[in-house]
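Notes from the 1:1 (GR / supervisor)

We went over the backlog. Supervisor wanted to see one worked example end to end before approving the batch request, so GR pasted a single chain during the call. The sequence is below; no edits were made to it. Supervisor asked that the structure be written out right there so they could see what the output format looks like.
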Amino acid sequence: MRVAIYARVSTKDKGQDTENQLHQLREFAERHGTIYQVFTDQESGGKADRAAFKHLLLEAYQQKFDLVVFWRLDRFSREGALATLRYLKELKDHGVHYKSFTEPYLDSLGPFGDVIVSMLATIAAQDLIKISENTKAALAKKKAAGVKLGTPGKSQEQIAQIRRLKGGGLSNYAIGKSMGISASTVAKYLAQV
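Structure output shown during the call:
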């Protein structure tokens, strides 16, 4: 089995070093096959735009290895349950398995791999429901307090001012900058009769 290793630390300073993870991950990987490649990032796991992570996913999709091992799930991704779950599902869909060194239950080769992923999916779905409920409650509170919700309406005075400035030869960008709106909004208001 061809095994890829992924290691990540959040910062380059503060004594963090991927070697702390790699020493044991190499031994772990060798127990499952031959090491294909080691991918390391030294940046936040809260974003997908990590060079080595993107490269790892690309090569996984190209089926260049069979298994990826990582120290812990939060070392693999900290983008939230849904994004992380999506990465794990995409790996499996492309025939690539995964294993966590410190979390033996996160093992797509094991008998409970699908059960764990299902539980993660359920937790992620519950998180979305909570976010939705919290948002609705906050909006209801604002509405009850008399706050007008939605996109602020344009006033005829604002449109007249935009037309005066445009008649004075200003660009949409300059008008938008002076009024605190975008140039495309200026263009939209000018297009209205």
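Supervisor's comment: The chain has two domains: 2-123, 156-191.
Batch request approved.
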